[in-house]
Specification:
The chain is of the alpha+beta class. It folds into 2 domains: about 190 residues, Jelly Rolls; about 110 residues, Arc Repressor Mutant, subunit A, CATH 1.10.10. Helices cover about 40% and strands about 20% of the residues. The strands form 2 sheets. The chain has a 7-stranded antiparallel sheet. The longest helix has 19 residues. The model has no long low-confidence stretch (mean pLDDT about 85).
Length: about 300
């Protein structure tokens, strides 16, 4: 019995031994947990662990880039390979003990050395809780691959820390809660400590001011990127591009998420109708509000309110 199969029997989840395209090629795949019920403001959606992973080096997908709607952390604990994304022209080296940070909307690929395999554990997550960290050095698209293992805490230590976050969710029927998100926050904070200090720069201050300017807009106030850009001494396109680069999402998407977060609060704390909340949060119609709400949270406003009452 393999190590992953043993862990699966102990904790739950689903184990499969998958066949590759070459004769005798297999990898052990453990789907630790998967949730389809987003929880605001931070939500763990999926976790898996693969040993003997060949990555995308099969079926002609070597150069195919994936685009996720969530964040992701992939910790490589054996083997070596490379990483590429839309923001970096040069391939980035990945070694055992490194973590790969993945960002929503950014095309990327990562894979072991040609003809080789590696072992990895992955966590997918989303929510404004994590959006706020973009550009601060905590979740930094400029540094998608970072070393974790060092003389103080080696490779097994960090694998155990990842397990501490996701193993409580491996049991069938368990949905992530805020306390589960808290364990992930603690893991990311510890990762940052291992990188010494978060990156402090003018970019951090700029990103904080730009996000604050968007949050300060009243819900009914239209988003005028020309005027907003001018207040930062930039044209509309320059402001939009800088915001996307430092904050990970466009100003429009950030604003929508912020308004939906306000709606989430009202759905839980008030008895106002869905239509009333839609207009109070700046959405022109209830159908448009419901559509955007589900795009961002994964559930309808009605489902979100019903779950909060359970």
């Amino acid at each position: 019995m393999s190590a992953l199969e043993t862990l699966c029997r102990l904790h739950g989840g689903k184990f499969t031994r998958q066949n590759g395209t070459n004769a005798g090629q297999t990898r052990d795949y453990w789907l630790i947990m998967e949730s389809f019920h987003p929880l605001y403001p931070g939500w763990i959606g999926r976790s898996l662990q693969i040993e003997g992973n060949w990555g995308m080096q099969f079926q002609g997908q070597e150069e195919k880039r994936r685009v996720f709607t969530t964040y992701g952390l992939t910790y490589v604990y054996a083997g070596e390979g490379e990483y590429a994304d839309d923001q970096h022209e040069q391939l980035i080296r990945v070694r055992a003990g490194d973590v790969i940070c993945l960002f929503p909307g950014q095309g990327h690929l990562y894979r072991p050395e040609a003809g080789q395999t590696w072992n990895e554990i992955h966590i997918s997550f989303s929510g404004l809780l994590f959006d706020a960290w973009m550009g601060t050095g905590l979740l930094d698209p400029d540094q998608p691959v970072r070393p974790l293992a060092n003389e103080t805490h080696g490779i097994p230590y960090w694998l155990e820390r990842f397990h501490e976050v996701v193993l409580p969710l491996a049991r069938v029927g368990v949905e992530p809660s805020l306390s589960d998100s808290g364990r992930l926050v603690a893991l990311i904070a510890e990762m940052c400590t291992s990188w010494e200090t978060p990156k402090l720069s003018e970019n951090i201050e700029w990103a904080d001011r730009a996000r604050a300017a968007l949050i300060a807009l009243s819900p009914e106030e239209p988003l005028d990127l020309v005027e907003l850009g001018q207040s930062f001494g930039l044209g509309e396109q320059a402001f939009r591009k800088k915001f996307k680069r430092l904050c990970g999402v466009t100003p429009t998407v950030f604003r929508s998420r912020n308004l939906v977060e306000q709606a989430c609060h009202q759905l839980i704390t008030s008895n106002a109708s869905i239509k009333e909340i839609a207009f109070e949060c700046g959405f022109g119609s209830q159908p448009y509000f419901s559509r955007r709400f589900k795009q961002i949270t994964g559930v309808s406003p009605e489902e979100y309110r019903a779950r909060s009452e359970v």
